[in-house]
User: Fold this.
Amino acid sequence: MHVGIIMDGNGRWAIKRGLPRLMGHKRGANRVKDIVKASTELGVTTLTLYAFSTENWKRAAHEVEGLMKLFRGYLQNNFIDLNEKNIKVNFLGDPTPLAADLREQMKKLEELTKDNTLITLNIAINYGGRDDLVRAARKIVDKVQDGSLTVGDITEQTISDHLDTANQADPDLIIRTAGELRMSNFMTWQSAYSELAFVDKSWPEFTPRIYAEVIADYRRRTRQFGAVIPKSAEIGTKV
Ligand code: FPP
Assistant:
């Protein structure tokens, strides 16, 4: 099962308590470990965390810098632990505008954990669903131009195979914390048939217990992927 989380509400959590927004992000970063652990216990095999969008650069410079510092700190503090816990870390998004040392750490962690099997942790940094599609389009056009792919060969699978999530299943469930009812450019292609869950608690308040309730609620839903699946009682009845 693949779960994506839009970790929203750090800023509001802090402001409500008279704290600077960055304190909210710090609390948010502390939540990550619990939720990754809970994911492994709840049968989640891929967890995608939306940490920084392609639009988040528009925030005040000190907030962007603070977030980058948090990512750096998270990687430094959890580098060994993530590997020892058998977690495979994968980064989604375009790393090009990130600081060279951060990019280097990200690459090293991906390389170190690439054969791990307990859970895949996708961390989306400088990620946008539309940007993912633009970058995929460029890769596909390159292949058409060098002759390794023909236009007629392009299918939905071709698009999926050139996104940052190539070789991964689409998210079954996308959770957004803090009450806003929108997708904010998260996994635009991959979310076509995802179930959605909007939670009123902010990300710093999103406990493993609330997470378990959201997953339990998801498991009670019936997914049809556009088809009409008859209820078992209806099978064999005359229409
Ligand atoms: C949205 O809250 C949250 C973010 C833009 C940043 C998410 C980052 C973290 C949780 C920190 C670290 C993550 C990792 C993977 C180490 P917001 O600031 O938009 O909140 P608001 O809507 O209340 O202002």
Remarks:
- Residues 61-84 form the longest helix (24 residues).
- The mean pLDDT is 95.
- Residues 137 and 159 are 8 Å apart (CA to CA).
